[in-house]
Please model this.
Amino acid sequence: MGLLAAGCQTNPVTGEKELRLIPESQEIAMGVQNAPEFEKEFEGKVPNDAVQQYVSAVGQKVAAHADRKMPYEFAVLQSEVPNAFALPGGKIYITAGLLSRMSKERQLAGVLGHEIVHVSAGHSVQSLQNQIGASVVVEIAQRAAGQYGSAVGTATKFVAGMANLKYSRDDEYEADHYGIVYMARAGYNPWGMPELLQVLLDMSDSEPGRWAEMMQTHPLTSKRIEKAREFVQSEYSQFSASEADPQAGEFMKMRNILVETLKKSPSK
Model:
C-alpha cells in the first residue's frame, strides 16, 4: 500500500482540501500503539487519580466542541519540563512542569484546546511526516494497525519524532485561533488563551533553560499573543480579561495536590 493509500480530503477545521497519507483508523492505532513508550519518555503518568480525572474532565469539555470527533484522551505526565503534546489519534498530554505554572482553569482549557486543534486539523500527523519522512509515518501507522509485520522497532522512531516535533508558525496560529473557539464554545472565558501564552513568554525569559524544549516544539512569539488578544477582543467582546475565573479555586486545589504527589513519587 504505502504512499498509494494517500487521498485528498477536506480538513474539518479549515475546510481546505489537503493530502492525507494515512486513514483515520491507522492514525488512531498509531497513537494507541506508541502511547506507552511515549509516556515513559516523560516519566510516566502522575500517580494521582484526582488530578488525572480533573484534567481529563476539562479536556473532554473542550473536545466535545472540536470539529473532528476523535477518541480524545487526556493525561498529566510527571516530567517537570514544561510542555504539552498531541499524539496522532487524540491522546493529549500536559506535563506536571507546565500544569504547575498555571493559575486558572481557563488557562488549562486554553492549552488543551490548542492541542486538540493539532489533532483535529491533522497538524500532528503532518508535522511528523515532515520531520521523519512520509514513508516512515505510513509504515508506523500500518504496523500499528496490524496490516503487516510487528510494531516493535517503530516505537523508537515515533517517540523520538513526537518528543522533538516542530510545528510550523502557521500551525501554531491556527491552534491558538481554533483553540479559542473550542474553549469559548465550552463556556470558558477565551482570555484564558492569551493569558496562557503570556505566562509562557514570561517564563521563557525568567527560566530560559527549562523552557527551551517547549519553545522548540511550540514556537512562541509576541506576535502570537497579539493575534490571540485581537481575536478575543473582536469576536468575544462580551468577555473581559479582568473577570475572575470561577473555577480558579478548584484548579489551585488540584495544582497543590499535583505538587504534593510529585514530592512523594518514588521516581522523583
